[in-house]
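Private note to self, pasted from the team thread so I don't lose it. Backbone tokens:
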């Protein structure tokens, strides 16, 4: 049985949606970062539910682009303070960045000073660009996987290829997984490419 809790408010103003199975165990946790203002975008919800059904807690935070790093910091404080209540294992935390949320999630994933150190980062159909390059060098042990559709009409495959090349050159364990599919297919769990995203995330939580 799955439990979905919407608008779990912390620090008085910010909120996160929590998807998890009813279990007495502390579950691995995936923080799904989408575009600002679209945290309940249907595709993100389907992806969170697919992850939840496979035994992880999926969290979708609501945040503002203008205060991204500070917002992630407040969320980390909340997760640390309420890990028991949320039933999550913070030693098994993965960031999943979707579409334009992929480089945004990297802000936390690569942060050397993060209160909660991330073990893995997955970018699905990411719109990689100037934002991610200054982050390279942080959290040197971070495992990175990018999933990208060969027919992506919104996010250039060449940008994902260049990003993985740069990460590998910097010494990261970074790989790019590609298969036929569109931008939306990358985070659609009913599509083979979306299932690749789900499986890749789950492997990082083990």
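Design output:
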């Amino acid at each position: 049985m799955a439990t979905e809790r919407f608008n779990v408010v912390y620090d008085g103003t910010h909120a996160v949606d929590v998807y998890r199975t009813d279990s007495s165990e502390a579950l691995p946790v995936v923080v799904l970062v989408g575009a600002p203002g679209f945290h309940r975008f249907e595709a993100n919800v389907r992806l969170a539910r697919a992850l939840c059904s496979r035994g992880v807690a999926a969290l979708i935070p609501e945040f503002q682009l203008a205060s991204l790093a500070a917002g992630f910091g407040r969320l980390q404080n909340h997760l640390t303070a309420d890990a028991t209540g949320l039933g999550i294992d913070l030693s098994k935390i993965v960031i999943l960045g979707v579409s334009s949320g992929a480089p945004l999630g990297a802000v936390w994933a690569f942060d050397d000073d993060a209160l909660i150190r991330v073990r893995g980062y997955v970018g699905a159909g990411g719109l990689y660009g100037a934002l991610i390059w200054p982050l390279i060098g942080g959290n040197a042990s971070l495992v990175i996987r990018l999933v990208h559709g060969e027919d992506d009409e919104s996010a250039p495959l060449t940008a994902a290829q260049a990003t993985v090349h740069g990460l590998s050159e910097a010494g990261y364990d970074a790989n790019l997984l590609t298969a036929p599919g569109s931008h939306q297919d990358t985070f659609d769990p009913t599509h083979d490419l979306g299932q690749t995203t789900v499986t890749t995330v789950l492997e990082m939580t083990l």
